[in-house]
What we know:
The structure holds 3 protein chains of 3 kinds. By secondary structure, chain A is mostly helical. Chain A has helices at 3-9, 27-55, 58-65, 68-101, 107-113, 116-119, 122-133, 140-143, 154-179, 182-190, 195-224, 227-232, 243-252, 256-288. Chain C has helices at residues 43-51, 93-103, 108-121, 137-149, 167-184, 195-201, 219-224, 229-234, 323-329, and strands at 3-10, 20-27, 32-36, 58-63, 66-67, 78-81, 155-159, 187-192, 204-209, 212-217, 239-244, 249-252, 255-258, 268-273, 279-282, 292-301, 304-310, 316-322, 336-340, 345-348, 351-352. The chains are: A mainly alpha, B mainly alpha, C alpha+beta. Chains in contact: A-B, A-C, B-C.
Amino acid sequence: MSAAERASVAPAPSPRRRWVPGVLPGFRPTLGVTLTYLSLIVLIPLAGLVLKTAELSWADFWRTVSGARALATYRISFGGACIAALVNAACGLIVAWVLARYRFPGKAIADSLVDLPLALPTSVAGIALTAIYSKGGWIGRLLEPHGIHVAFAPAGVVVAMVFVGLPFVVRTIQPVLLDLDPQAEEASCVLGATRLQTFRKVIFPALLPSLMTGFALAFARAVGEYGSIVFISGNMPLRTEIVPLLIITKLDQYDYPGATALAVVMLAGSFVLLMTINALQAWSRRGLHG
Amino acid sequence: MADAWASAHEATRSADVALAAVPAGGDNRLPPPAMSEPWPVRLLLIAFALGFLGLFVVLPILSVFLEAFGQGLSTYVSRLAQPESLAAIRLTLVTASIAVPLNVVFGVSAAWVVSKYRFPGKSLLVTLIDLPFSVSPVVSGLIYVLMFGRRGVLGPWLEAHGLRIIFATPGIVLATIFVTFPFVAREVLPIMQDQGNDEEEAALTLGAGGWRIFWQVTLPKVKWGILYGVILCNARSMGEFGAVSVVSGHIRGETNTMPLQVEILYNDYDTVGAFALASLLMGLALATLVAKKIIEPRQFRR
Amino acid sequence: MNVSVKNVTKRFTAKGTPAVFDASFTATSGAITTLLGPSGSGKTTLLRVVAGLEVADQGQVFFDDRDVSRVPARSRGIGFVFQAFALFNHMTVRRNVAYALEVRGASEEEKRKRVAELLALVQLEGYADRYPRQLSGGQRQRVGFARALACRPSILLLDEPFGALDARVRVELREWLMQLHETTKLTTILVTHDQDEALELSAQIVVMDQGRVVQVGSPSDVYDRPRTPFVASFVGTANVLRGRVEGERVALGSLSVSVPSGTRDGAEVRAIVRPHDVRLAKNDGEQAGRSLGTITRMVGLGAHVKLQLELPSHDPVTVQLTRGEADAMGLAVGDKVVVDLAEAKVFVEDYSI
């Protein structure tokens, strides 16, 4: 007999019932494991960050985060991520469309390959991209004579960011595409619209929320990315240095306060992005369930 | 970066289910041919998509293997067998073999507690589980340095007791656990939520105790989800670079995992050595993709 | 404008049964023609072939004398209403209804006028700026109708338009559709599996089974003179009694039927009799055992009473009487009654005699 049943059988009505989380056994142990793990792995280290942040004086903090070098890293990290996410949005839309709608030989392989940037260690991606785009590499060889520098130039940062963000747009849009009501497209066609009109007026608006969500996810990933960028970019301060690299540089110099300050800026940015993404996902869910 | 990998994987899940679920009598998922784009447009789009994937995905895969084997098989093997590289492989395997099982225990516990009970603070708990996805890997490593590093909060205390976390294996394991612990939880939790508690409650009424309910009723239902989570968790545990780079200290032969050793060899201009190690990691990544493809449909035949 | 379908065949798989096989019918101008059949009978596929949403493997579709078989869906000038509404969820009602005008580049003025007309026609004035998710199922389908009528099509195609709605809403909208048709007088082809809907709305019914057209006729033709046992039991409820030809006669329950000479001995015979066509009379002891049935169950269903009888041959028969008739006879479970099956339609194998 559970506590609830016992309570109902007992004659004396007790005004304060003991709150029960559920009837299945195992609440205490599983909650215990979960909370202990989270405390050790997440909460305690985060507490360290908070404490160290508190040690910063406002003046020092401001000096670090608004220094010329830091400002340049923001420009490169956020600017590059924006461009890369736009590229991913446009190309990812096409890739998702093709995977969701068409049949062609090798489709299953192509579909699996989209996930590679998620499965591949970032340093491997880094050296591979550098090999391809440096002067002697397969693509670098074609571009250098025309004065287009990818490796050890800002363009390289963007290329690496496109690589790591690729799956996010595709995988966010793909299920939405598959769930689209084909009858709405048929209705549009029967009402006289050309295929292009149907795409512009019916399909694309339905995809827009998830497209923006994918953009935001790709952007967030690109901003935080480290491994795949530091090889191809050349890490030149003020030109191709990204924020995570500056943090590491400061750590190497034992400038903990400086590193912490920059980390706080990054966390603030991540927080804003997270809120945006959640809002976009909520909008996306709402819009589809008409 | 909420649900970064995980939502991408949720998306992969539904995408693959749809692809796998094409009914025999005709492709009901695709609009009928009367509706679709004219074939030149379709061809162009397919060519573009394949070209894009070829440029950004296939080319790196090829370049890794070509650079690794470019100077012959014997060079490949000898560079791979360097003591530092072997140490890196060993460290990677040790880290993964600690991180993955611990994360499985955590993931299943967390999924159980969130899906089967009501208690205050549940959504905060779920947000905490999602946290590593929102944070840059470098920042993930940084917080451990700030806590356990020589100048960190607990630094002096650790030093006094002769314990080293940062710049030693424990730090690497911790950082790896941080970035990978959500994977199993995020795979198993939605499955448990979808399946509901009916069967467990039935077992309860029939007199089963907690462990029995878990082993005999719940576990068989979620085993594919756990396996899927393990595959993702393992791939990331062996492949994490940024966070581990911050905490490792790059002590040659001691605190370098495979991804870190790749960087060291590359900066040493030992191209073949670097790409040889990279080829192992690339192989692991490709194997992960294959395993995902195989398991995904099974995950859905609940 | 009338619609002629000639020998249309459509397959979705290379082997196996075609979805539609050699289907032909003509939908008269200005009237409602219904394609009626169970799921899988091919009726929706046939409708979509008429719409241009599917391309037939064989056969042709004519609008008046014009062969439209090769004309794409967007140029056929038809209106199509979908079972699941298929409204554009991210557009307001106004924009949904005006869509056909929008893709043809109509002016704002034209669109505004036409939307107002159409919303008045479907009794949804004032809903123009709502979104589909704010409307009930019945309202959404009315928007679907308004949208389909925007460009004044000459033909209206309805694919189980009320299938996704509650039973009560379905009945209300059936009434509404009749009035709409009175107003618009459009040639309409309606697909449904609901025989009440078909009988009530249509001027002509095309009965389909497993991809083939089985009978074409007016509602009374199809109901009173079914050509096959399938039609007889699908359209309207029916009791089915079976027997075999022996010599020149067949015994079916209490009925003895003579069959035409030349009928194969041992051929299967089926008699279909509708529950309200069974005549009962109180047993006054005069009748011999053979035509007596025993009442096994009696249920009052509002305006009529449903009885289950068992014949001496152990065949069950369902009978429907009006309340008045049942009260007059004073029946109870276990009573024996005289059963008259004279109104049965008898089929030898698959043709009626």
